[in-house]
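In keeping with the milestone schedule agreed at the kick-off meeting, the structural modelling team has produced records for the first pair of proteins. Each record is given below as a sequence line and a structure-token line. The laboratory manager (R.T.) confirmed that both were archived under the project's standard naming scheme.
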Amino acid sequence: MRTLIIALLATACSLEESERPPREVTDTPTLEVRSIPLGEAAEAALTLAPAWIRDDLAVAFLQHRPKKQDKLAALLLDLEDLRLIDEVAFTIAHLSPEVLADEDFHLELIVENAEWVYKVDPELQYVDIVEVGDPMVDDDFWSTTSYRTTLDGQPGTLELERDLYYWYVVHPRIEDERPYYIDAWAECGSNTLECPATPEEGMFWREFLWQGAGETCPDGNFCPVLSEALADHDLLWDELGGGDSGGVIRGIVDHMKASDEAAGRWFNFGAQGERSIQPNRIYGLGRGNCGEWADMTTAMSRTALIPNVNVTPSSWDHTWNGFWHERWVAWEPVNTWVDHPYGIDFAAYATRGDASTFLQTPDYNQSTFDMVVEVVDKKGVPVDAATVAIFSPWEDGGQTYWWPAGELATDDAGRATFPLVELNEYAFLVTSELGTYPAEDGTLTLGSSGIAAGGTDVQAAELDGRKMPSGADVTLGEAGGSAALTVAVTDTTGRSLAQSWRYGGDTTHQPAPSPLVDVLVMTEAQYALYESGESAEVVLAEAGEVAVDPQQTWVIVVDNAWVSATAAIGTLSVEVAPGPDATFEDSVSTDLRYRLLPGERAVLEVRP
């Protein structure tokens, strides 16, 4: 049989070209996207948004049902002021989906928040919004702020890094509160420390702190506003510390301590009775401890277009602020302290608007080591996007308590790395959809017992659950035909979608390495089996090239099946080219930008 085949091939090869039968030319195959996870409005909003935000925005849309996607997309599609596109797109992309789904959260606040950034800018002498690119011309564009300030003792200009502008000037969430409309003058008896109002009944803090407090001030009260307090300031900061500092940084301190001859100070130190976490209501109460002062400082700073965060040290019942001036500068208006040489004994962290935290320990203590927590499932497989919360001890009255010291999500290798002060004990808690570690409710496990600065202490955590792929089993079969099908995956990245332990399960949104996705090529009939969860036969189980029959329908699948809580993002490139015996002449190709939540897949078809 082998001899016969060789003979036949030899005969065929000896034929003159003119003796070959004419080849019938058929239509070139077509490439079609079979499954589109986003609606038309969401796709249109992605096109409107700047390129650097699109992937994050798409992942945010995917975490909501179609009707909610349409409502979020409309915020962008209906904008009259095109300068706001990037700020609105970023805020939608980086508010936790739980916030966006909250019935007390009003979506128009997202647009209003951006509008007030631009409303106050012309009134402030020390800062200008800088626009990079044109939303009507360029595919990519963004905004930032430029400050007149002092740099190394000389007058200078400081332009904020792009991401710092969006996270710490524009973002409407400070820390543990939700961005609600709040009636500053209405008593709040809620045990959540928040009493959300409607847009008609309340205000968002940007408008309220800028001018609204004065417009709604009860008779006999003293209600100073930022629009008046900051009007004459033309410098961000003069780099002087302590009580000698100048610039608008000192202006905000003076504003918070302003006093009226008849009514006295509008904001005092000391908390009793009702304690709120909402800036408007804190203003209405006119009092607070360090936490309330920190919330007010951040809200006022961001209203005044100054990047600012709340800083929380562990094992210390205290908090202060940090503003950005080529570094995070410690700031505590209640004590008129600027660039105060704080020291910490364990750890310090700050919070982003998506409920994720970042460790600031090295900013306050140079004697640090790294505690690495490695999280695996019951089979030893690394768990991605598990939340690792850490704790440090606090001694009080002879009793040891464990105080939150920050939290991070594990990477694709199941690792979370914490910079911590040396020679201390630390405990940790791991939460994930695969379980918790320790498994007992209300318990922690002791981590590091005291490592010297510069060292690394690796701790292991094994969850009870098993990380199982969500896709069906596949077997590799053979294919053959007159068309060359080439599949490639490029420009890949990921987004960790962990849930915060510190902030009530709100989903965080962190850049992450690209998860390992399945890239499969199969016939239409085999895909029907795969889609139903049954074992299917594929002709290609990775990116590459395979010969296929162009008269059949082929299905290319990208499946994010191997993760716990990481979205997969990338570009699927497919080309169909004629082989030597093909009955079509032209190659056809397409690219599909996929954004897949855990367990989701993108599907593209090659049709005759």
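The second protein of the pair:
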Amino acid sequence: MINRSEYLIKNIGNYCILIFFLLFSGKSLAQSSILDTAISYKAKNIKLHEALTQIETIVNYNFSYNPDLVANNFIKCRYEKQSLHTILTNLINDSTLKLMVVDKQIVVTKKRALRKLDLKRIKETEIGILQIKGTILDIESKQALSFANISIKGKSRGTVSNERGVFNIKLSPNYIYDTLVFSYIGYRNSFIPMRELSFRNNLIYLKKENYKIKEAVIKTYDANKILYDAISKIGDVYYTNPYKIVAFYREMVKKRHKLMSISESVLDIYKSPYRGTYSDQIKLLKGRKSRYYTHNDTVSIKLKAGLKATLTLDLMKNPINFIDRKFMSSYKYYVTEITKFNNHKVYVIHFKPLEHFSEAFQGDIFIDVTDLSIVAVEFYVPYKVLQRNKQLYVIRKTRGVKIRPTSVKYLVNYKKIDKNYYLNFVQGELDFKIKRKKEIFTKNFEVSFELVVNEISTDNVKKFKRKEVISQNNVFLDENYEYDHQFWGKYNYISPEKSLQDAIVEIQKKIDKLN
């Protein structure tokens, strides 16, 4: 009889702090009195960003600004009991910028990014959609931050950035007075009023905030106890009753890094209770797809269907063995650091299997220090284990074809709304080597799937009718659906990287010629 962990592994096989944000402009939402606080400060021949870092420790507020807006000159100053607003205004010395306070952050921002004229224009458009685009980068390295979370403060709407840090969020103009929250593991959260952003080309620079802890101190943390307690609290910190989500879903198949197919859809998902026999359900709202491959490449398209894996990867509902207390003795756990996620301190617990364990994973679990909620998990299948269980990762294959998986890794994270956590983002990446009989060389294929939760609803939740539900076992690219241009304008989506867009254009041109 197959046990629960084996079942989950097979289902997966079958088939993202201050975010030291560049802020762009606006008005204080709360706690603006900090700017009136009198402090003393002196500095001699240091860069402006160093001075701001020193002032952060004095006032216990973080600064959030766009480095491209603020000149980073050397400064020399001495202030005795001056208001913080006066000190900052003199240090920054730019009349086109202004200061605002959002939660525990002091934002240095450009004056009036979205004007009333812009808002009027939005409302007069046919669709009436407020669309904001930008890129999220590390402030020091300028490297893109893949799969950073973007959401509306205190609400259930949101999206994530793509592999190149690009985000594209579409909202009703009614949200113009709300605040966007950007979060990324290991970085500070940043709160940016919607009106402080422009429609496009927003560069959001985030700042790392890891806590420096000596190795001797790290060893005092009992990782097993932390994880054991976190597992015990799953029923308390996660929303375990039925709820519905509207999600964006994407599957891609590449051969030697060249795109072969892409399918995207907006899904309505019924999340069943954590306890009980009911399964999650998926209703396809709208979809679109492009594909270009020969008959000989069909085997690659049949490798994985990610819908079932995506729902199975809700690990708080479907715990895999490394977060199952019955199997914890088969793993070694240790705290590697304390970092930040969504403005909360989190333990980073690394886990790896003991040698004897055959159905094993390896990776990191991120656990909130305060409420012991598991906020994210990154894990992969070790290569040796992958080769022993390679049959789990192929749905079906063509006769005379050898398929060998070379890498399987997953990422899942959760978002807190009010007092409960909900599924927020799921990603899977699977790499294969494929060799046909009588061929000398193998071919490399990459299969990926992503699910991003755009909206969560807990009111009047009911199961879907049977005829509305699509099968989670089918290869998603094979689903039949019509492209609806007007519909796609109403939903958030992950902007694919430019090279991917170019590939889709070329594919479509060839398809058009055939018609």
